[in-house]
Each structure stands twice: as structure tokens, then as C-alpha cells.
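Quick entry between incubations.
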Amino acid sequence: MHVSILILIATVVSGAQSVISVQRLSKHYGTKIAVDDLSFTVAKGEVVGFLGPNGAGKSTTLRILAGFLGMTSGSVEVCGHDIRQESIEARAKIGYMPEAVPLYEEMRVVEYLAFRAELKRVPREHRRSFVADAMGKANVEDVATTRIGHLSKGYRQRVGLADALVARPPLLILDEPTAGLDPNQIRDVRDVLRALGKEHTVLLSTHILSEVEASCSRVVVIAKGKLVAAGSLDDLAKKRRAAGLVVVVRADEDAALAAVRSVAGIAKAEIDDRASRVSRDPGDPCVVTIRASWSKTLDETAVEGVIEHAVSALVSAGCFVREVRPVKSTLEEVFAALTTSEPEVSS
Amino acid sequence: MRSFWPIYKRELFAFFVTPLAWVLITVFLLVQGMHFFLIVDHFASAGAASGDQTPLQAFFGNTVLLYLVLFLLVPPMTMRLFAEERRSGTIESLMTAPVSSAAVVLAKYAAVFTTYVAMWTPTVLYLVILRRTGEIDRGVAASSYLGVLLVGAGYLSLGLLMSAMTKSQFLALVLTAMLILSLFILGVGEFIARDGTLMHDVCAHVSVWAHMNDFASGIVDSRHLVFYGSLIVLPLFVTVRAVDAWRWG
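Done. Structure below.
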């Protein structure tokens, strides 16, 4: 509910300077619907993560934004240019990195980037410096004179990034920039992205959530071509309220469990075997970790009351409470909940 | 059209960086050289018996070798133009840059035509050789080369279209070869169909052989110019539409 208000506010505030504005976008491949009535905006200066499971329509949407595919219905504006009516002007504002990072194998990196710079209308006198700059930002200077066909996947990915950057476009659209990279390379690309976020508006698609947490200020989540959520990472996490409670007590297992289960509002409570230290010595009570989850009807404000009741129940049952903390759902859990259930469109 | 120039340069680069280009050029010059040698040899031995034909006319007009070479040359030159980009996905980077479809198509066409012209350029040497032994008619030489360029331009245009029709280079090659061959065979129909029938007229109109005979005799018929003009422009136009149409696929 409050997410939708936030989106509304964000839309109104950013309306004047939204870099991407997608309105009721649909794309059908024959009878298959790839994108279904999708609307969202990206404001200037934002780094937006475009999330969704594989096959959700992420690449299709980005290809439409980049002007490579046509839409079945709806409209897309990039920097104020309609992608259908003023396609070339709109494309001139975008640095796009396709998912597969297609490159001309027979060219050397610096030749390729010079070609791309010329194609993207960088004036002749700036071309050399723009290319050098893009190579620096994407960290490909050491392979400048290598043929692209001889490059490793990680380097190809970065050459693709340099290509997206070379004309210094106000908007970067990156389709899975870290796909197929090893953890070190992912970290490198992530650093580059974070730096880019300071100068460009970035829309990047991914299905890796840690990437979003690391680099994005806002996320747009789609599933089966439909928008399921949009907002800041915190908004998303709030969308799923804290899933439950973890208590660590020094007490007898069964007594502690019974005490937690007696509290109204707790649906389920279980001993976390991995975290609990169970001692066979009868004189030494064990340290028990209990995971409890709220019943579904519980609302945000009642949660605090339930925590208080749980603690007092435990204390009166003779348990020594060592730790009580609510469980935040991880972004993974939010993502799973959002994309597997029926889409609950926030508007 | 600002994007014409970079794409044109890249296409030329891409063609000459592959061994295919050099193989094609070598084979082409080898065949043309043999062809020229045979003709000169024939004229040298036959002397006056060769009638009113000149070696130039024979070279451009009266043998099947010219078409055979074009038939073998054009399909591998044009097959990769679009098919390769679509297969490897580079078409996505190309078409998301601020370029118009027409500029892309024209640049690719201009590049392959430039290559074609470059292939023929060394044959100008034959004229130099012929001049050392006798007179050559400059007008005939000019019209002959005009004919060669027009026929080639038409075939290349067809090849470009076929390359835009499929993602498979091989299929583009086969389709182009079949089109060129059927156009040629249709032309042969001129000699098979009875005089005065519609079939005969149609065949005569599209007969590349007859056209080249005219060009090699110094005749520049406006009907031929219109025919080759259409053969160049129509496929190019359809190609631009095809490139636009991928967007909606």
C-alpha cells in the first residue's frame, strides 16, 4: 500500500526530469506475451536494478528501450524522445550493452571503440580522448591492441561496457553486465558500476540479488512480463514484514518451546538444531535457539506487542533470555515471494 | 546518413581482413587472366579469320566465362553482409546505435560494390597490353566496363537482399546463386522461345548475355540502364524495409 504511494510521489517528483518513462508497454511474440502492460519511470541520476527471474521479459523490455525491438502497444520515452517517433535521437542518448555482448571479433579493441564512437557521432576531435576515457573506466587499457576474438569472457564484457560508455551518454542500459563472470570480475564490474552511477543514469538488469544490493538505489521487479514491485530496496523489504523472531535462551528445550508457542500471534515455533548447543549433561541446561514465525493475520504494530509477550512468557517459564531479534527477510526471500506468487501490482 | 561512413569503412575492413576476400580476388584474377590469355592467343593465331570482332568485345561480350565468374564471385561476397551480423548478434549493437536503416543498408552495399570495383581494377592492365599491339576503341572499353559494373551492381544488390532474408550465410549464398543463375537461364530463353512470343520478349529483356554483348559493342541502350537501375534499386529498397521489419519480429 505505502509502496504505491511512494511510487506515486516518485513519479510526480521526477516527472519533469525522468530519463526513462515507460507507459503501458506490451510486447507479444505471436501469441506469447513477453511484456504485459508494464509501466515505470527512471529519474535522472538513479541507478535502478531491473529484476526478475529468467524469462520474465527483462531483456525484451531493455531491447525495446534501446530501440532494437518494436513494442506491440504502449509508449517509451527516453530523455524526452519517443522511441518510435524520434528513434535516432533517443538512441543517441543511450549507451546500451546487450546481454550477449556481441562484438566484431576481427577488430582490435581500440579500433572497435573508435568505430563505435564514430557511429555514435562523437566529433572527430574528441574521439581519441573519449575512447581512451572509456577504456580507462572499463579497465581494458591493457588489451587495447588485442583482437576481440582472442579476449576472455571477462574482458569482452568490459569491452561491451566501454562501448556503452564511449559516447558519454546520459543513460546507460546494461543487460546483465555481470553474467558469466567469476567472483573477482563481478566485483570489478560492480566497482565500475558504482563509479558510473555518479555520472550517469543507469538501468541494469540482473537476476543476481547481491548485485542489486551492492549497486542500486531503486529496483523494478517484473515477473511473467508484469510489474510486481518498484521502489527502494528498503521499501521492498518492508513489503514483506519481518518474517518472525529468533530467540536464544538458556533453558530446557521443551519448556522454552512451549512458552514461545503459548504466545498469541505466533503461528509456528521450532528449535533451530544447527544453532543450538545441546548438552547431554543433565546439570547443564542447553542453550536453545528458537525460530518463530508470525501468524498471517498479524499486522506491523501488533508485532512489537507479540515480541514483548514472548519475552515475558519465556521469563515466567524460567528461561534465561540471551537474545531476541526479529528476522528481516532477505532480498532473496522478498524476490522469491514477489515473483512466484500471483503478481500483486502495487498501483 | 552520418553513420554511412563509419559502417562503410568497417565493412571494407571486415572483408579484407578475412582470407575469403583474398581467395576470391585471387581466383577472380586467375580466371580473368586465363580468359584474356585464351582470347589473345585465339586472335593472334586466327588473325583476319576472326572477322570484325575485337579482343575487347570477345572478352566482355561473347563468352560465358564472364558470367561464370560473377556467378561464383557475388554470392560469397554478399552472403555475410547481414546474415553474419544477425547470427553473431552484432546487429543488436549496430541497430541500437543512432543509425538509420537506410544508412546501414547503403553503407554495406557501397562497401561490397567498392570491393567489386577493386577486383576489376587490375583488368584495366589488359587494355594497356592490348594498346601496345594495336588500337582500342575507348568508347567500347568504357561501355564494356559500364556493363560489367552494372551487372555486378545488380547481382550484389540481390545478394545483399538475400543476406538480409536469412540468418544463415550458407542459405544466403545458395539463394543468391540460384537467383543469379535463374536470371541467366531466363536470358538464355531468348534463344529457345519462338520469335514474337511474350516469352521471347521477356527473356530478351532480362538476358544478361545479350546486354553484355551490346555493352561490349559500345551500345549503351537506355532500356538496359533502366533494367539494371531497377535491379539495383528494388532489392536495396526491400532490404531497407526488411531491416526495419526485424524490429517487429
